[in-house]
Amino acid sequence: MNILSIQSHVAYGHVGNASATFPMQRLGVDVWPIHTVQFSNHTGYGSWKGRVFDGGMIDEVMEGIAERGVLASCDGVISGYMGSADIGHAILSAVERVRAADPKALYCCDPVIGDVGRGVFVRPGIPEFMREQAVPAADIVTPNQFELELLTDVEIKTIADAHRAVEALRDAGPKVVMVTSLVTEETPGDSIDLMAADAKGSWRVRTPKLDVSVNGAGDAIAALFFTHYLREESAAAALSKAASSIYGLLKRTKEAGSREILTVAAQDEFVTPSQVFEPQAI
Questions:
Q1: Are 24 and 197 in contact, with CB atoms under 8 Å apart?
Q2: Residue 230 pLDDT exceeds 90
Q3: Dist CA 89 CA 68 (whole Å)
Q4: Residue 85 half-sphere exposure, CB side, CA atoms within 13 Å?
Q5: How do beta strands 176-182 and 114-115 pair?
Q6: In angstroms, rounded to a whole number, what is the distance separating the alpha carbons of residues 3 and 65?
Q7: Cβ atoms 226, 108 nearer than 8 A
Q8: What pLDDT digit, counting tens, does each position of 71-104 carry?
């Protein structure tokens, strides 16, 4: 399997492609990473070095890949944080090129916009670009609860609200939706929910809540979910496997007291999670 991953990248730590690429490789995927930024470390440290690339650079790298004659062997494209609408347009152009070579290829968009407590943290225009162009072009989207509410204008307090929001997002174009960091009135205080839906139904995976705050977990779970969905064509199975792996990864990270997720040290969690959480139909 070959996946084109267009995301940010850091030299130190694990966010963007530095978080998503290795888990997919550990699962046997040949990943073609294109970086939208090259930073020394993630911005959560408060200071960093490096630069943001532009859409033209992404177009150039895509042209080089196309010249190798391999686009027809690309099974899917995944994108994450978009620094600007310019980069967003280049990503959608890349998706179009891959689909032209292989109409069966899927596009997974992680619509990075913001989070509960932090609000919107992307540049002006990005939320609108996500809503109006990226999400409708995607086959799979992986928002957190904050992003799901923003994209659908549905306030989520109950699981019924979550159902309504997910179906509204599916009506916009994507056939599969996976929601992370879902907390409703039905979620116990010591737990966190994840939800996925496709044409076959909706499922929830509930894991214990871990007192850990790290960057990059969302990038990793989107990549894992996409990989498992491409192989199994089941949102339920992909949700269970991705959630189980991320729980194991974060549990190991918490036990080590690390500020960075232990992408390499805990790599066995991607293949054989220590604890498997089964999906429940909802």
A1: no
A2: yes
A3: 23
A4: 10
A5: unpaired
A6: 12
A7: yes
A8: 999 999 999 998 888 999 999 999 999 999 999 9
Q: Using one digit for the tens of pLDDT, what is the confidence trace for 18-60?
A: 999 999 999 999 999 999 999 999 998 999 999 989 999 999 9
The closest alpha carbon to 216, from 10, 7, 19, 38, belongs to 19
Tokens 């989070």 appear where?
115
Model pLDDT for residues 169-210, shown as the tens digit of each residue: 999 999 999 999 999 999 999 999 999 999 999 999 999 999
**DSSP secondary structure string for all residues of the chain:** -EEEEEEEEESSS-STHHHHHHHHHHTT-EEEEEEEEEESS-GGGS---EEE--HHHHHHHHHHHHHTT-GGG--EEEE---SSHHHHHHHHHHHHHHHHH-TT-EEEE----EETTTEE-SPTTHHHHIIIIIHHH-SEE--BHHHHHHHHT---SSHHHHHHHHHHHHHTS-SEEEEEEE--TTS-TTEEEEEEEETTEEEEEEEE------SSHHHHHHHHHHHHHHHH--HHHHHHHHHHHHHHHHHHHHHHT-SS--TTTTTHHHHS-SS----EE-
Q: How many CB atoms lie within 10 A of CB 232?
A: 12
Question: Rounded to the nearest 5 degrees, what angle is found at the Cα of 120, between the Cα atoms of 115 and 121?
Answer: 95
Whether the Cβ atoms of residue 74 and residue 102 lie closer than 8 Å to each other: yes
β-bridge mates for residue 109, sequence order: 79, 141
> Taking the chain, what is the end-to-end CA distance rounded to the nearest angstrom?
31
Nearest C-alpha neighbor of 143 from the set 155, 133, 151: 151
Q: Residue 159 is encoded by which pair of tokens?
A: 């699981």
Contact of 9 with 18, CB cutoff 8 Å: yes
Contact yes or no for 74/46 (Cβ under 8 A): no
